[in-house]
Amino acid sequence: MKNILVPIGTSPDAHETLQYAVDFAEQFSSSIYVMEVFSAKSGAGDLKNISEKVEESSKKHIKEVIEKVDSRNVDMKIATYNGDLIDGLKEIDKELGIDLIIIAPRCNDIKEELYLGHTTGRIVKRTDIPTLIVPRGTIFKPIKNILTAFKSGILTQRRILEPLKIIKKKFKSKINLLLVKTPGYSDEDLKINTSLMDLCSQLTVTEHATTYLGVLEHFQSTNPDLLCVFRRKRGFFKNLWEKSAVLKSEFSVRIPVLVLSVKKD
């Protein structure tokens, strides 16, 4: 886990997410790229240098956020991008190779009733980079117990599990697998990939209308430090993808959520 990207917005609590990222990165000797996206177009006359001025302002803001955290000797670099957030993430990933994005559930959304805001929702939906969603105010602690929930045991590529393997190895984590049989499941879905089975300490099979409901049923009994789900077109975050934000009442898990790359469409 060499490079970790931390997109920050205008929230006054952005340093909390960055501090968690620093504490996490320290465990793996990772570098952190603190990113802010802005949108400015240069033009003739007085607008000629507006992009440079906005970029300078963005860098200043990032430096102010960095000054609020204990760097713990973690290598932190500034990354800015003029344009769309998703385009910026993909561009930086192409250039540097990003192993993990760490972000708060809500970036610039001020609606307190929301769990996942528009910005974070776009990242979860539209990138294939593993993403760790960290609730604001979360203090880093070793990840000892992980609940990994899914509706299909099919894996298209072994590398999808790499972040989970790295975390398990570092913290000697216990991984509980939760296979949720949803309406329309096939026999193939019930055949769990051997790479996934090799990671698990316990397997539970349940049946619900959605993976999400299965997680709610078993969450308290497993008491995980981390919830791991898969980014899929019709998977755990299905309801998030059908609207721009999700309410806390619909998803109120107050632990980090690791979203892994596309597993099966």
How would you characterize this protein structure?
Helices cover about 30% and strands about 25% of the residues. The protein has helices at about 15-30, 50-65, 85-95, 120-125, 160-170, 195-200, 210-220, 240; strands at about 5, 30-40, 75-80, 100-105, 115, 130-135, 145-150, 175-180, 200-205, 225-230, 245, 255-260. A ten-stranded mixed sheet has the order 3-2-1-4-6-12-10-7-8-9, with helices on both faces. It has a two-stranded antiparallel ribbon with strand order 5-11. Strand 2 (about 30-40), helix 2 (about 50-65) and strand 3 (about 75-80) form a beta-alpha-beta unit. The longest helix has 17 residues, at about 50-65.
User: Mean pLDDT, rounded to whole units?
Assistant: 82
The major sheet is characterized as:
10 strands, mixed
Number of strands: 12
Q: Count helical runs.
A: 8
Q: In which order are the strands of the major sheet placed?
A: 3-2-1-4-6-12-10-7-8-9
